[in-house]
Amino acid sequence: MAPSPTPGWLTNDDPRFPYHPESAVRPSVIKSRGMEILQNPVYNKGTAHSLVERERLGLRGLLPPSVLPVQRQLSRTMDRYWHGSDFIDPSQVDSGGVTHEHTRKWLVLSDLQDRNETLFYKCLMDNFVEMAPIIYTPTVGWACMNYHKLYRRPRGMYFSAADKGMMSTMVHNWPHDHVDAIVVTDGSRILGLGDLGCNGLGIPIGKLDLYVAAGGFHPSRVLPCVIDVGTNNEALRCDQWYMGLKQPRLAGDAYYQLVDEFVQAVMGRWPHAVLQFEDFALEHAGPLLKRYRDHHTVFNDDIQARCGRAHLTHLILVKAGQTPHPNSPTATTPNPTYQGTACVALSGLYGALRVLGKSHADLTAQRILVVGAGSAGMGVVTMIAKGMQAHGLTPEAAAANFHVIDDRGLITTARECLPPHVVRFARSDEQSTEGESLVECITRVRPTVLIGLAGAGRLFTPPVLQTLAAYCDRPIIFPMSNPTARMECTHEEAIRYTNGRAVFAAGSPEPPVVWHGVTKVPSQANNMYIFPGVALGALLARAGTVSDAMLMAAAEALAAETRPEELELGMVFPNMDRIRDISVAVATGVIKAADGLIQNKKLLEAIDAGPEELKAFIHNHMYGFLRGLWGIVGLREGWTAGGKMIACTQPRRLAAMTVAARVSEEMGCSLGREVGYAIRFEDRTEKGRTCIKFCTDGVLLREMMSDPLLTDYSVIMVDEAHERSLATDLLLGLLKKIQRQRPDLRIIISSATIEAERMAAFFRAPTAASKPRGHPLQHSEAGADQFSGNPALLSVEGRAHHVQVHYLDEPCSDYLAAAVEAALQVHRQELPGDILIFLTGQDECQAAVRLLEEESQKSGHRSGQLRLQAMPLYAGLPAAQQLEALSPAPRGVRKAIVATNIAETSLTLEGVVYVIDSCFAKQRAYNPLTGLQSVLITPISRASSAQRAGRAGRVRPGHAFRLCTEAGWEALPAATVPEMQRCDLAGAVLQLKALGIGNIMRFEWLAPPPPETMIRALESLHALGALGLDAKLTAPLGNHMAAMPLDPFLSKMLLEGCSRGCVQEMLTIVAMLSVESIWAPGNKVEVDEAKARFGVAEGDLPSFLNIWKAWLARVRDKRWSYKNYVSHRSMLRAADIRFQLESHLKRAGLDWRSTALGPGAQGDAASGLLTVRKACAAGLFMQAARLTEELVLDKADARDAGASVYRLVRSGGGEAAAAKLRIHHSSVLFRCRPSWVCFYGAEQNNTGWYEMRDIAVIEPDWLTELAPHMYAMVHAHRH
């Protein structure tokens, strides 16, 4: 059967149903959801998205409640197209202090925030003073009034009465999982503008912009919200473009149920966020705060409730597993007591008193007249009254200082139905009349302070201001109402009608006024000074409440930030360009005042670590552009562009290591990458990646050997230059020459006590042309022309607190005992703060620690009392113990750090409040006539003493106890003698020669060394073979010695080992001579027994080989080291140095394998040891000594067997011949009497003896063999 034909109504030619392919509906398949759709211009329809689309696409809550069809959006767009911003009612501009320029800037910034939020916040942070009035008051008021006309893209979340039952789902449409701060409004009382409904969202947006810029909250972790319960503003309900619900506002149970649902939804998703209620009407603000205070972190910037509790409930920590309990909305309205504005007002009064030359305590004497009895006015009154009570007044006496006026006149107890929070301040005296006018009240009361918070416009009329000025010489006038149109008076009016005598602060920004040639600068009494810092401190602390003390601390912290130069201009608040520092200070004050309430364990650790760590902790939780990736990018684009580095030199190894570690931590990078350090025999930098390099001065000098012009660096900072070490002075002299060749090199010289003018004069002076022609450091006239030669002098203000200095009435005979007794007296006072004691050396530090520990054990430890923990700090201390001394004291412990002058600078000692200064220090002094140095205890300089005292003022006001009389202190030298003038210069001269400095005597020193020392250095280098008769480096010996990272004597020893076939042994000896001490502290008898196990009759240097061999045989076992009193850390350090020296020999093409005592050695052990001893003598022959027949007895000690006297072989008569030497007790030869020795080090003690260390026994004929140019054998004639 043939198929039936197709029905006619389906045929293509049926005229009833023609086919039109162009009319086919092609639905869009959208895979995105939520904010992704709104940010995609292809899919985004803005407010035209239907309710169904909003629900299905996850847009609910991200768009305003009303659906505006595309046609209506088109109408608004065309109005903008034809009229620009003129479509806004001109009457709303130029009102409230807002001009067309304000609106233009607001539009620019709003557009930037929509396009590039990162750049927006960067602009805001860098230009806060300029832009704050644009994004916040007064411009934000205009923006809220016209928000429905200015709307471009969604920002924040919208919750409305139409969303009831859906809010817990809606919150998950917000794209960010982490939110720290939520600001919400119901639009009922926006600034002083009244009910603005949904348009009120502009206030949370502006407020959170300040949270980010001033408080450091991250932009992605803040959420502006509006609860749209309708509006009673008839004009908005009739506006075709209004985007909110066009219905009357909800009230009663329906209102509170809706807010309940909102709070449960947002706190359910983000339970630890700070929730701030903003610009709620007074009848709702109090009950809402009471409703949620025990369940969530609630913050209200406009009102704070006491609610019958003994503490404020400004911020409440959420309790796990709890939900808000249903409080009746008809519950008693709590008393409004505090607000952000109130804190600002109190702080402003403190600042105004400082402007008048008074103290905070003078607040109690002020007569204060407040115009406005609303929530803001009474909050300010109550807060200031609390400030008066803190300074000793009773609540009644404080209340008697206030007169409050509202729209009905002066408030007295005769008025009926006063709220409880107003009754306290209602006047009950006979002189006060109910309803008294403002001028009448001023005439009778003669107030010193006039505060306006009525929001009713120009209430401070010329007669009011003139009357006030007639009865008060310097009136304090705070018109704090917002915006500007509702302010009680302008700055110009206040100055004019008080004849320039007013101390002024306003709620909105006001311009300066020139009065009779004097510029009067106003302050802005805006709560943006307070709420970012309070919120930040409360968020970090998670304290559960904000107590009276915490808010008082915030006000006082803000007042303390106003600088003296700002006070001189009449400013009662600090300049807003420091807003982030101000927020940190406020947050710090809040956190410190919350002690005992803090639930954040990491914050507690930071508090225990000291103020700097607390400040760093706060900064690390603040959003900014100077940490992490932004910081590194900034460096790469600045001074470190093109692979250049910034070098920061330190005088000590430990300082370079600790500062580098701290900077790397603050920058959020790993140590050794972007930030690293380099010290002798240790380099933690990464070539091509390190931007900032901390190093010792000596390391930078060593780098000049291969790169004379330091081309790897764009900036060199010489830190702690006041210490004037040999390497520092040498480096400064070379940098002066380098800068003539490299005008692009930036040199920064930093110090706390340096003579800046003298340093500037040194770099300003012309450089002598003393270099050989063709050398990189040779003077160039062309380079000199490019260099300005005019150093800039900068003084960076520190943050040290005041330190009170105490002196002795009479000189003390034993400063060690006096220091211990002073420390114990401080400890018995039980005041907080650690103790830092300055003594002269290791032995004294250890003795003081023992005495403090003994006294602490005798006195015992009572419950609640700080436990005294004494610990030493000196250069020879193992690094682990040094870091322990630098770490913060544990909770309940007071540290007493007994230190040498290593603690004067560079090192950060947190928590020190008390400094005990012996006013003495050990100082090295080199005698070029003997070739020996002395380590003597000498008085310090006044500059060093001041530096020590400054250690007490890092945390809080401190005390410095100087163990001398004031007259004795005045007699101290002004500055310390530079090391250049009191040390051996052989190493420095060798480096200068290697750098091509031909004429050493004409080299420009910051402090010229003594000629005798320079001559001795040249003589020593010539004797070692490093310099020839022409005073130039010899080849190859001199060049090899200069390239070694060792002093010339050790370099010669090592190179002699290469030539004699015992380099492996010399590597070990030189490495062990390069560490502090290989012997660990302990019982003297047991340590001597350990030395005897390894010691040999040939001296200390050969004994090192036995220790090294035994340590390697035990596979570098730490337990073996401990058992044998060998410093394991020193051995590890020596092993590292030995490896690096071996690598250096390899690179130089020198022998590094030969051995005289190890496997493969030629000859027996005796001959091998003889070779090693000769190699040692080849480097130390100038320090040879012989035993004499002299014997020195201690007549006071009957058991003294006498000390053998050694004399220098190369004495030449004079002082050298008179020098008495003996073997130091740390030597393995202490109880022996070898006839001839050479030694690496000898130091004179306070008894006059020179004590020899690191000794090797030699034969006398070796001297003539090894140094015939120095020694000759002669026969002694006996008479």
Automatic annotation (TrEMBL):
Its EC number is 3.6.4.13. GO terms for biological process: malate metabolic process. One of its GO terms (molecular function) is malate dehydrogenase (decarboxylating) (NAD+) activity. It catalyses: ATP + H2O = ADP + phosphate + H(+). GO terms for cellular component: mitochondrion. Residues 573-772 form the Helicase ATP-binding domain. The keyword Hydrolase applies. Keywords: ATP-binding, Helicase, Hydrolase, Nucleotide-binding, Oxidoreductase. Its cofactor is Mg(2+). Residues 819-996 form the Helicase C-terminal domain. It is an enzyme of class 3 (hydrolase). Belongs to the malic enzymes family. Belongs to the DEAD box helicase family. DEAH subfamily. PANTHER family: MALIC ENZYME-RELATED (PTHR23406), NADP-DEPENDENT MALIC ENZYME (PTHR23406:SF32). This is RNA helicase.
